[in-house]
Amino acid sequence: MSPTSYRTAPPRGSDGKYTTLAKRLSMTRADLVRLPKVQLHCHLEGTLRRERFRELALHHGVDVGLRGSAPLAEAYAFIDFAEFLLLFRDVSSVLRQPADFAALAADYAADAVAQNVRYAEIFVSPSVWTWFHHGIDVEATFAAMRAALDAAQATLGIQVAFICDLTRNFGPQRALETAQLAAAMRPYGVIGVGLGGDEARWPAELFADAFALAREHGLRTVAHAGEAAGAESVRSAVELLGAERIGHGVRAIEDPTVVELLARKRITLEICPTSNRLTGAAPAHLPHPMGALDAAGVLLAIDADDPALFGTTLVDEYLEVEQTLGSDAVYRFAANAVEAAFAPAALKARLHAELAVSRNSGGGVEV
Ligand SMILES: [Zn+2]
């Protein structure tokens, strides 16, 4: 079976509408843990374990208030977006030195392996590091993370590449500089650039030069869009930036012509259900638009965004897919993630094969 054959539209009934399989497979959490996974939308800084956060705060003498003294489960508590930004500030404030990032990367790899993540393209935000800590040695930080991840690959088998986030809020000039930096960091496994941050106030067109520069240096391109702004922002990310994948993209659902564009160009959306509800990108009181986007033929992959900060895991996000769309969607989305990865063809073929073995070996029971 050719890899592209995995990227199929969902089954449709005679009326053309999405339908579930007659015999639905029910996958348990253990089945979903065993599912071989590719991770495409996860911010490394957002994976910082609570324990490690407190350890680093103590080590560096950073006062993180109640986050340092409340019960561990409440260390990352927030009630609204303003508080979430303060949490993000606190997390960023304790990541100060290359060794901190090495520990973060090693923890990430261990946690990812525990969920059977086989390959990851993970976001890092060097312009945020330097904004919080002017003196940080960025190249030494990449080198430290690379060493930690190479050690994880040798012992645990996971492969991790980096995508540098250009971060809209710092403006186009800084984005250009970060794209240049990303190119210089290729020896440490940087393979692309992304674009997170305040989408509503910093539209895509401001970053066209930075994306062009990244491409000239052989970097791949992705962009967050359709999260804080509407469908037009998704169209801009595709048409003006040439983004090859879209982070979230859920608000594409507001414009059928953008949905059609995504389906036609076979652009994968990296869907993070818990994040979408917490940020309001997908209203919590309505079904998540992933079902409608999937039914419209848009390729979807599932991810966790900032799992530690949002109190979720990649397995939890897949569990939501299983419970709302069924196991066929779980396997389809997992295969889409493999296909949308920027990994070498041989690695992708191996990952597709692992997924096929997982499916054939009964990752689920008929109900
Ligand atoms: Zn994100």
Task: Note down, in words, how this protein is organized.
This protein has helices at residues 29-34, 50-60, 66-69, 81-94, 98-113, 126-132, 138-156, 171-184, 208-216, 231-239, 256-265, 273-279, 290-295, 307-310, 314-325, 327-340, 345-360; strands spanning 25-26, 37-39, 117-124, 159-165, 190-194, 220-225, 245-248, 268-271, 300-302, 365-366. With 367 residues, the chain is of the alpha/beta class. The chain has a single domain, classed as TIM Barrel. The strands form 2 sheets. Strands 2-3-4-5-6-7-8-9 form an 8-stranded parallel beta sheet. It has a two-stranded antiparallel ribbon with strand order 1-10. The two termini are 27 Å apart. Residues 41, 43, 196, 224, 247, 305 line the site of zinc ion.
List keywords for this structure.
disordered N terminus, binds zinc ion, globular, alpha/beta, 8-stranded parallel beta sheet, TIM Barrel
